[in-house]
Amino acid sequence: NAGVMQNPRHLVRRRGQEARLRCSPMKGHSHVYWYRQLPEEGLKFMVYLQKENIIDESGMPKERFSAEFPKEGPSILRIQQVVRGDSAAYFCASHYTLTDPEAFFGQGTRLTVV
Amino acid sequence: AQTVTQSQPEMSVQEAETVTLSCTYDTSESDYYLFWYKQPPSRQMILVIRQEAYKQQNATENRFSVNFQKAAKSFSLKISDSQLGDAAMYFCAYVRGLGSQGNLIFGKGTKLSVKP
C-alpha cells in the first residue's frame, strides 16, 4: 500500500505564474488536508477536503488559492499569480476516516518563487 | 482557539543520553489527541508517538515516551538512549477528538542535535 504521494517535490515558479501541487492520498483514504510550512515554522492548516467537497477552507488565503479533490484523481492545490511570500513547503495528509485522528503525510512540495 | 507552544527552539543531547522536549497546549475541549512528529532533513513528517486525552497512562514507543499532564496541559517527549538518527525537528501537535474536524495544530518545533 503506497503512502501519500505528492508531486512535484520541488517546484520553481516566477512571480505571477501559477503553481499546481498534487496529492494522492493513501488507498482507501477519503479525507485530505493541506498544510503549509513556512521556514522555521510548524505546519499550518489550510484546507480540508473530502471527495468532491471542500469541508473547511478557513486556513486558506481568500485570494489566489484554491483546492479540489475530484471523484477521480489526486487532490490539487492551486496557487495563481504566485508571489515571493508563497515560497514554502506544502504538505498534504490523509486520514482513513474522520474519527481516525492519525494523519499520514506526504513528503511535501517545496515551492520556490523567484 | 487551540494553541500549541514549544518553548525550546533548539536542544542538544549527547549520544546515548536522555533528552526531554517540552510542549504545552491550550484547549477548552475535553476530548483530544496529542502527537509528536519528527521531521528529518528529508522533510517527511514521521509520527513518533500519540496520546489520547482520555487515557491516564503515558504512551511509550520503544525509546520514546511522553509525560502527559492533562491538568497542566503539558505533553513532553522523552528520548532515551539518543541516537544520531534522532537528530531532526520535532513538532508537538494537537487535534480535537472524535466526531470533529481533524486538522492538526502544530507547535513551532524544536530542533534536536545529537552529538557523537
Describe the structure using short key phrases.
heterodimer, A: 114 residues, mainly beta, 7-stranded mixed β-sheet, 4-stranded antiparallel β-sheet, 0% helix, globular, B: 116 residues, 6-stranded mixed β-sheet, 52% strand
Task: Kindly provide the radius of gyration of chain B, computed on alpha-carbon positions and rounded to a whole number of angstroms.
Answer: 14 Å
Helicity range of the residues of chain A? under 10%
| Total number of strands of chain B | 12
| Number of helical stretches of at least 4 residues of chain B | 0
Q: Mean pLDDT of chain B, as a whole number?
A: 93
Q: What is the distance, rounded to the nearest whole angstrom, between the alpha carbons of the first and last residues of chain B? A: 41 Å
Structure, described:
The complex is a heterodimer of chains A (114) and B (116). Chain A is mainly β. In chain A, 0% of the residues lie in helices and 49% in strands. Chain A has no helices and eleven strands. Chain A has strands spanning 5-7, 10-13, 19-24, 31-37, 43-50, 53-56, 65-68, 75-79, 88-95, 104-105, 109-113. In chain A, strands 2, 4, 5, 6, 9, 10 and 11 form a seven-stranded mixed beta sheet that branches. The termini of chain A are far apart. In chain A, 37% of the residues are buried. Chain B is mainly beta and 116 residues long. In chain B, 0% of the residues lie in helices and 52% in strands. Chain B contains no helices and twelve strands. Chain B has strands at 3-5, 10-14, 19-21, 24-26, 32-39, 46-52, 60-61, 64-69, 74-79, 88-96, 105-106, 110-115. In chain B, the strands form three sheets. In chain B, strands 2, 5, 6, 10, 11 and 12 form a six-stranded mixed beta sheet that branches. In chain B, strands 3-9-8-7 form a four-stranded antiparallel beta sheet, with no helix packed on it. Chain B has a two-stranded antiparallel sheet with strand order 1-4. Chain B is globular. Chains A and B meet through β4, β5 and β9 of A and β10 and β11 of B.
